[in-house]
Amino acid sequence: MSSDDAAVIVSDIADLDKQKFLHGYNSEDGEELQNALRGSSEVDMTLAYLTEKLENLEHLLLLVLTGENDIEAIDIENDNVSAEVIEKAFTFDLLFAILNFELRELDGLMVDLQNLIVNALKKISSCENSTELFTGLARKLHHSEDLLKRSQERLLEIKIQLAKLQMSSFFFKQNEYKHDLDMGVEGELHLATSEWEPGVLTSEKRRVLRMLELSLARELELENKLMELKQNEEDLKLKIQLIDRVAVCMEEAAEVAWGRFLEADNEAEVLMGISKEMLGKLQLVNSNVSSSAKREEEFKSKLQYCIHELNEKETLIQKLNSSILQLVADNAEVTGLRERVQMLEQRLSRTESELMEASVACETSEQQLRVMEGEIESLREKAYAAEIRAASAEEKVTQLTDSNLELTEELDFLRGSNDSNTKKVSLLEKQLRELDIQLQHSRASSEASQEQQNMLYSAIWDMETLIDELRQKVAKAENKTESAEERCVILSETNSELKKELDFLRSRMEFMETSLDQATLEKRSSAKDISIRTGVIMDMVMQLAMERKRIQKQVQKSATDALSDDNQAVFSTSASHSTNLVLNLEAESSVETGKSRRMYVLIATLILLLSILAAHLFPRRLAVFKPVGSCSLAA
C-alpha cells in the first residue's frame, strides 16, 4: 500500500462534503452512489496493489536473470561443486517458482479487477440521475481501465521474458545438473565413510550416523524456523510500517477534522457574540419601541386634543360662516340702504333745485314787486298766496332739512355701522386666517406624526426581519455546531477503534517479540546442544581412530610373534574374517550412504517445498492484510 493510496483513503474519509451530497439524493440513488463509490475505491486500492506488485516482480525478474547468468557461467561438468553453487541453484529455482506463482496470481487479480470495473460502470450507467459525480466516477473508472491495460501489457512482457528464460540452456541441462549434483554428494559421503576404520562396530556407526542425521534434521528445522521467523519479522515490520502510515494519515485526517471543528467552534463563538450584540440591539430596539409606543400614545393624546381643538375650531368656523352669511345679508341691507340714501340725495338735489328755482322765483317776484309796486295791492292776494306757498315751502324745506339731517345721521350711523362691520369682517377674516394657519399647522403636525408613526412601524418591521434573520443564522450555527459535534463523535469513535486496533497489534507485536525471543533462546540452546553433541561425536571419532591405530599395532605385533604356519593360517582366517567384516561394513556403509543420500534428497525437496509454501503464503498474507487495513480505514 503506497502513500498515494493512503492519501486517497484519507481524502475519502475526511471528505465530509460527499456525505452531505449523498443526503441530497433519495434512498435508491444514494445506495447506488455509495455502491459506485465503494467499487471505485476498491478498484483504486487493487490497482495500486497491482502496480506495486508488478514493480516488485520486475525487480524479482532482474534478480532471476542475474542468477541465471551466474549459474550459466558455472562449469557443471566439473565434479568440484561448492555449497554456494548449490545454494545459488536452489535460490534460482525458488525465485523462478515464486515468479511463476505470482504471475498466475496476478492474472487472476487482473481478471477480477476487470470484472469489478465492468460491474461498476454498469451500475453507474444504470443510474437515472446522471450528475457530475457520476460522470467523474465514470472517467475515473475509464482511467483505471487504461492503467489496467498498461499493467496487463507489462505482465505480458514479464511472461515473454520468463518464456525466453525457460528456453535457455540451463533449464534443458537441469536434470543433468541435478544428477551430477547427486553423484557429487554421494562421492563425498563415500569418501567420508571410507576414511573410517573398518573395525568399528556397526551399531556405533549407525548410532553416530543417526545422531548426525538427527542433528542435520534439527539444524534444517531450526534453519526453516529461523527463515519463518525472519519472514514473520519482515511481515510484522511491513505491518508496523503500514499501521504507522495509516496512523499518520488518520492523524492528518483527525487534524483536518479538528481544524474544521475549531473553525466551526470559532464561527459559533463569533455568531454567539453577534447574537449577543443583536440581543443587546434588540433590547435597545425594544426600549426604543417602548419609548416610541409611549411617544405614540402621547402623540395620540395630542392628536385627540388637536382633533378636539379642530372640532371646536370647526364649530367656530361654522359660527363664523353663519356670521359671515349674516354680514353678507347685512351688507345686502346696507346696499339697499345706500340705494335709498342715493334716492334721498337725488330727492334732496331735486328739492335744492326746486329751492333754487323757488329763490329765483322769489327774486323775480321781488323784482316784479319792485317793478310792479303798483300792482302790489292787486297782487296782494297773489303775494299772500305766494307767502302761503313760501311758508309751505319753508315748512317743506324745514321738513326736508330735518329729513336731510335725519338722513345724514342715518347715513353717518350706517357708515359707522358699515365701518364697524368691515372691522368685524376684517377681524373675522384675520381670525379665519389664523384658524386656517392653525389648521395647516395642526394638519402638518398630524402628517408629521403619521410619518413618524409610519417610520416607527417600518423600523419595527425591519427589526423584526433582522430578528428573524438572526434567529435563522443562530439556527444554522446551531445546526453546524451539531454537525461538527457529530463529526467529532464519529472521529472520536474511529480514533478509539484505531487505538484498540493499535493496542491489539502492539500486543500481538509484543507476543511475537516474546515468541521470537523464545525462538532465539531455543535456537541458542539447540546450537549449544548441537555443538556439545558434535564435540562428543568428534571425541568418539578420535577415540575410534585411536582404537583403530591400537588394533593395527596389536595385529602387527601378533603377526610378528606367532608361528609362521599357524600364524599364516590364523592370519589367513583372520584376514578372511576381517575382509568379510570389511565387506559387510562397506555394504552397510553403502546402504547407509544410500539412505543418507535419499535423506539428503528428501531434506532438499522438503526445503524447496517449504520455501514454495512460504512464498505462496507470504503474498496471500500481504494481500489479505492490505484489504483488511483498507477496509478498516474505509470503515
TrEMBL record:
Superkingdom field: Eukaryota
Entry's transmembrane regions: 599-618
Keywords: Coiled coil, Membrane, Transmembrane, Transmembrane helix
Matching Pfam families: WIT1_2_N
Cross-referenced Gene3D superfamilies: 1.10.287.1490
InterPro entries: WIT1/WIT2, WIT1_2_N
Domain WIT1/2 N-terminal helical bundle: 35-171
Coiled-coil features, chain-numbered ranges: 212-239, 327-410, 460-522
PANTHER family the record matches: WPP DOMAIN-INTERACTING TAIL-ANCHORED PROTEIN 1, WPP DOMAIN-INTERACTING TAIL-ANCHORED PROTEIN 2
Protein name: WPP domain-interacting tail-anchored protein 2
Organism name: Sesamum latifolium
